[in-house]
Design a protein that fits this description.
The protein is an alpha/beta fold and about 280 residues long. It is built from 9 helices and 6 strands; from the N terminus they run ααβββαβββαααααα. The chain has a 6-stranded mixed beta sheet, with helices on both faces. Helix 1 packs across helix 5. The protein is globular, with a radius of gyration of 20 Å.
Length: about 280
């Protein structure tokens, strides 16, 4: 059953739509979030995008980054993941590889690859070891003191374990994601942005269109799939029928979103269809 739509005025930072908008509303605040999470200094940010879509080629699986931040020497991908589907380590691997392909132009050398950071903010313990933060970099198996120095880092945060974080600024930031409580200058600014966005009619309308179409796709795709599935047999028919129903609804949803003037990136994120398929609907 699809989740109940939360009113825009009460939407928390842990809603993907709101997370993307809050973090890309203020460049300095976004940089502050990254610096606090990683404990590093971030160079001047030149590019900040929500729902950045990268299609490597027509046959490869595309990627939609939640919040993509970059400058000439660094790339940061911030992902909010509220449900544990068990694939985050592999997603992090693929996301970094796609970001590298996207940033390295023809004729450039491998030494020109930028520092690449992929951060997942989650309300669960992905590895089950009780830690609030899990940071991974490539090291030598025979001697962990030897670093590969490939300039990549993957970090997984369980923000519900914020009390275990020793650094106060990082602890307050993770607490904000866990409870919504603002207890630092940075989270205070995030909270202000959150409430400002909740009062903007433009984002309210886009969010409601997005959520309603997601719910419609879920409900109608399920119903259509079950109806067709019954004609093909209980064992395999319902599964295939649901798939067909959802595929048909994806196209219909995309067409409706185009009529509402929504962006390609948002349509791709909501429906899962490709940019080429969207162009075919024009």
């Amino acid at each position: 059953m699809a989740e109940e739509i939360i009113p825009w005025e009460r939407l928390p930072i842990t809603n993907t739509f709101m997370f993307n908008k809050v973090l890309t509303s203020d460049l300095d605040v976004c940089r502050g979030v990254i610096e606090t999470l990683l404990g590093i200094q971030v160079n001047r940010v030149e590019c900040m995008q929500d729902e950045k879509t990268v299609e490597v080629d027509a046959l490869a699986k595309g990627v939609r980054f939640d919040v993509y931040v970059s400058n000439p020497t660094q790339i940061f991908d911030l992902e909010l993941q509220m449900v544990n589907r068990g694939d985050l380590p592999m997603r992090a691997r693929y996301y970094q590889s796609v970001a590298d392909v996207d940033s390295l132009n023809r004729g450039m050398g491998y030494s020109e690859l930028r520092e690449n950071y992929t951060l997942f903010l989650c309300p669960f313990d992905l590895f089950g070891r009780g830690l609030p933060v899990y940071t991974f970099e490539n090291t030598c198996k025979e001697n962990p003191e030897i670093k590969l120095n490939d300039k990549t880092l993957k970090v997984f945060y369980n923000f519900n374990r914020y009390k275990m974080v020793p650094d106060e600024e990082r602890r307050r930031l993770l607490e904000f994601f866990s409870s919504g409580r603002s207890a630092s200058k940075l989270t205070g600014r995030l909270d202000v942005i959150l409430h400002e966005l909740q009062g903007e009619q433009k984002w309210r309308q886009q969010y409601m269109t997005w959520e309603m179409m997601l719910k419609e796709r879920h409900d109608d795709g399920r119903d259509e799939g079950r109806a067709e599935g019954r004609t093909e047999g209980i064992a395999i028919g319902e599964k295939r029928g649901i798939e067909i129903g959802i595929q048909q609804k994806q196209i219909e949803t995309a067409r409706n979103m185009l009529k509402n003037g929504l962006s390609y990136d948002l349509i791709i994120k909501c429906t899962g269809i490709s940019a080429q398929q969207i162009q075919g609907l024009l």
